[in-house]
Amino acid sequence: MCRLAAITSKEFFSPIENINALETMKEGHDGSGMGLILKNLGGAFEELKDYPILSGICSKNGMHTLDDYLNKLGFKLKYAWTPRIKPVKGIAHRDYYFARVYDYPDVYKDRSFEEKEDLLLKTRLSLRRMGENDESIIVFSFYPDILTLKEVGDPLELCTFFGLDKSPLKAKIIFAQGRQNTNYAINLYACHPFFIQGYGSMTNGENTAFVPIREFLMSRNFPGYIGYNSDSEVLCHILHYICKRLGYPLTYYKDVITPLKQSEIDKRSDSEVARLLKISLRPLCIDGPNCVIAFTPEGSCIMLQDAKKLRPGVVGGVKGKYGLMSEECGLDSVIPSRDKSKDVFPMKYDMVIIKPDAEEVMVWNQQHG
Amino acid sequence: MEPAARLDHNHQLALKDLPYIVRWRDDRCKRCGRCTAVCPMLSIEPAVVVKRKVQSEGLSPEPKAVRYTETIVKQTTSIDRYCIGCGTCNLVCPNEAIEPEFNPQHKFFFHKNRDGQPYRRGGRRNDPLPSTLDRLRFTRISMLTDPALDAGRHEFRIRTYLGRILPAEELPLKMINGKLTFDKTSGKFIPPVREIYPVIIGSMSIGALSPTMWEGLAMGITYLNEVEGMPVVMCSGEGGMPHRLLRSRFIKYFIPQIASGYFGWDEIIRTIPHMIEDPCAIEIKYGQGAKPGDGGLLMAHKVLKLISEIRGVPMGVDLPSPPTHQTKYSIEESVAKMIQSMSMAWGFRVPVFPKISGSKTAKAVLHNLVRNPYAAALSIDGEDGGTGAAYNVSMDTMGHPIASNIRECYLDLVAQGKQNELPLIAAGGIGKKGNLAANAAALIMLGASAVSIGKYIMQSAAACYGDEMNRCNVCNLGKCPRGITTQDPKLYRRLDPDVVAERVVQVYKSVDTELKKILAPMGRSTELPIGMSDGLSTDDHAIAERLKISYVC
């Protein structure tokens, strides 16, 4: 099992908080990797919100290739951030870890955001393909106001390695995963959280329905639905497919991945819709066991369980700061002052939704629609 | 000169030429005559033989030869009355004095062509070796990485869909106040979709089956639906259905079949205005796995009063169904027009799908159906499918195994992104070795949405003798010793429809538990693992490569 620590806050905070939370849940991960996604960035990035950030890792040669390629496309580098690496025994140091802010090519200046998103996606995929064989270029995200860091190792040691304990890097939403390597070889593309066009997710569990879901997504004729080095990546792409491609409200994500029984659907006010979606999107039923934590482009954070609820998950906090964690001890380390009696352990019908800026927590019950 | 043949029986067959040799034990037999009375082929008969015994009476040896007569049970060597190995003689013998024994050296096929008539029979392909399906294993077991489910305690939903499924992009939904609503004004056609149990009882007609057998199956599935809550459905086979059933609410558990002879359809069409429920679906039969490219034939002696009424034909005439639908000339016309006509007959409320025999051309049919918005599914019947009557050469050598046929069709749908839109139904040899749940689960994981069974249910619910050593297999002659495939009241009265129904229910409850036992360790309980090929492996490289699954050893 992996361990998950997500925090959403009205104020900026450091990823060290997530990493400390992961440390308290150490029994649940084996130090085989950590992934971080920061959204609504502060510090130097705050002024550059509208510009896409390319997050990744490159070798020396890879960096040349990457520069040449982006220059050729017309992207202009505006700002580059690299972590201050402090060597740690056991963590292999790669050449360049980076988060670089670019300005769009001139021809895209007046284009719609959808067109820009498509350009960013295609560019990221091209870079991924260019560096995939020799691992000279690894790119995790290329999107405005999103920064991703991933590496193999223990989260606390990686924190030292990346110098996060001393870095001014801050954000309002930070997702962190401490990896328990189970099924697949250690590959950074297999490391949660995953991100695509504004949607991010990380998951605890094993997606037994992975292969049919992967085949379904890959046959949607959408270029971003590739990769799948981890069986959990599909959960991020399903969220994107449901909310962005199909344009459905967020709550239908739960209806699709964990559909109700027909007798339960019959009691919903939108029973006809729920019935049709269950049939039409049958291959996307995850069948679990999974606990999914995700964020949306506007900054809502969600947690939901599959119907078997065999994975831990808890949400708690105070107005303005909430944590979505695998375990209670993680929450204790981040928000010790909260009223624990108000912690939410989402059950099989629940979808916990925390509004942007950690304004309020809602528990949406699937039975009532 | 007189030919020697008359003296030495040279043109007669020897017992050794026959597929089954009857072992009769003189010392056990009490000459009750039950075996000879019951033998469906009259292969054995009471006979009187003269025996010679040398005996001596008195104190000193005075051997004398004594001739005496004795009644015995004798096996004939007539090819028309060959022993079919059914074993009914053994069943009725009170002393276990008689049983047929398979003769691996037989030369039956060399001789079963008298009068220029090739060998015809019922049953399925005579291949006793394990099929590909029996060589597949479920190897992706969730344990420490993912707690396995408990087949006994967790809730499982073993259901599938029959009907054309619209892709989400085409659903007439609109957003009102942040909620999705069904747009009734769109005028968009939503094809009918049925939620059914994924193991269907395949097409076996009243005519091919005896009235008691068909009634037993029908009662069994009705009980499963109404009492056990398992939506098991059954296809009628060609030849219509009883009028009372057509007009009853139970019709919703049945899939009437239309085939090239259109038998029974006058009656069905006339009944449509009087139907109080729609049928589950309509199957259009274009082919049958057991005899691809061949038509059907219900022999005149099977066309008795009940059959003639249901089929709307005179009694006592042969009822041939042509190999193809004679009024249709192309795939476009045949498939598109028939599907549309049948859909229209029930106001587009009933799924209509074709059944074809397993074939390399299955993908061509599939592509045609994908483009037809009214096509509700594609049923593919593999070479191991059974039949009531066919030429042996068709059964043994024609056709395509179901495993690779269904797999390549499924992967073709995946390539088009339509794997959830057109359900594939797999048939032909499922449960051939008795492993119904395992074979069904394997086919589902290869890409089938449902499977269809025929021979298996006859074997398990009515103890059909037939097997792949050519045992019995006289369904075509109307002599079924179990009373399953005969219209002879003397024979079908042996079969109690209540017992058949009970057995159907038992079989389905058992297969349901077995499916859970397969799905639970694989972590699936909400939806069927359609296309979950990573769960399958085989110990044969070539099979693994062809089916695109992993090899294990």
Topology (elements, then pairings):
The complex is a heterodimer of chains A (369) and B (553).
Chain A: E1 3-13, H1 16-24, E2 34-41, E3 52-58, H2 60-73, E4 76-81, E5 96-103, H3 113-132, E6 137-144, E7 146-151, H4 155-162, E8 171-178, E9 194-196, E10 199-205, H5 210-218, H6 233-245, H7 252-257, H8 262-265, H9 271-280, E11 290-295, E12 301-305, E13 314-318, E14 321-325, H10 328-334, E15 350-354, E16 361-365
Antiparallel strand pairs in A: 1-8, 1-14, 2-7, 2-8, 3-5, 3-6, 4-5, 9-10, 10-11, 11-12, 12-15, 13-14, 15-16
Helix pairs in contact in A: 1-10, 2-3, 5-6
Chain B: H1 5-8, E1 20-24, H2 34-38, E2 44-55, E3 64-75, H3 88-92, E4 98-102, H4 108-111, E5 120-123, E6 136-138, E7 160-162, E8 173-176, E9 179-182, E10 194-196, E11 199-201, H5 211-226, E12 234-235, H6 243-246, E13 254-255, E14 257-258, H7 265-271, E15 282-285, E16 296-298, H8 305-311, E17 319-321, H9 331-345, E18 352-357, H10 362-370, E19 378-381, E20 387-391, H11 392-397, H12 402-416, E21 424-427, H13 436-446, E22 450-453, H14 455-462, H15 489-492, H16 497-519, E23 536-538, H17 541-547, E24 550-551
Parallel strand pairs in B: 11-22, 12-13, 14-15, 15-18, 18-19, 19-21, 21-22, 23-24
Antiparallel strand pairs in B: 1-4, 2-3, 5-20, 6-23, 7-10, 8-9, 16-17
